[in-house]
Amino acid sequence: MRRGATLAIVLPDHPNVGRLYTDAGLTRLRAEAPDAAEEGRIQAFCLATSMTAQGTASYRPIYVHAKVAIVDDLWSMVGSANLNNRGMRDDTEENVATLDAKLARGLRMMLWAEHLELTTEESMLTVARHLGHLRQKPTLDARAAQVLESLDQTLGDPLAGLRVMVERAQGNLRRFKAQQPLAGHLLPYLTGEEAKQHGLHFHEQYGWVEVQQVGEQF
Predict the structure, then answer these.
(1) In sequence order, which residues have a C-beta less than 8 Å from that of residue 84 and are 6 or more positions away?
(2) What percent of the chain has pLDDT over 70?
(3) Which of 182, 202, 178, 213 is nearest to 48 (CA)?
């Protein structure tokens, strides 16, 4: 961060270890690299879903359990290890890292497109099989290539794509305050102090995205 890198991280709003642990880590990161924080090079998001019933929007957080890292559209890693002492030192975990630019770039765009809800679930599965070199019909591989080409126009440049992510997250925060449906799933990850500054109800254990259910549709 001090050398000019930009970081985007997606965290659960309701971490099962409680908010104090996650908030403290993010606060320390910003304190250790204050220029990066001031310049907007540290961006933290959480995910949620919304629905509307009888004219009223309700929300539920999406728990982020994936352990995925992508660096410079070149290096990518996926596995079971959490970024804590247990995951990195104590537990028996396994991660796989690759140096594959096509895979890393495609994975980033696919994840960001899912968060932004830019494409369908069916298309996402087709792209995933294409990136993993799994066998599927040639027509589906061609379709996957078309999807990636389309996403490249919006998300191909990582910094431009991140600006889209930030704008969508901030827009969804305004929608949340106005009790309107979310566009996609992105919201800013707000620490307890930040949530209170926005006038949001904050639970020390569970975060600020309200868990509301209407009927059985969630």
Answers:
(1) none
(2) 96
(3) 182
Distance CA 121, CA 137 (A): 18
Give residue limits of the domains in the chain: 7-197
For residue 213, pLDDT beyond 70: no
Q: Do residues 83 and 65 make contact, with C-beta atoms less than 8 angstroms apart?
A: no
For residue 93, the 8-state DSSP code is: -
pLDDT tens digits along 80-116:
988 778 888 888 889 999 999 999 999 999 999 999 9
Q: Pinpoint the alpha helices (H) of 33-137.
A: 34-38, 85, 101-116, 121-131
Which own/partner pairs from 131-135 qualify as long-range (CB within 8 Å, at least 24 positions apart)?
Answer: 131/102, 131/103, 131/106, 131/107
Quick: pLDDT tens for 44-70.
999 999 988 777 788 999 999 889 999
CA dihedral 191, 78, 131, 102 (to 10 degrees): 80
User: Is 0.85 surpassed by the pTM of this model?
Assistant: yes
Distance, in Å, from the CA atom of 100 to the CA atom of 211, rounded to the nearest integer, reads 39
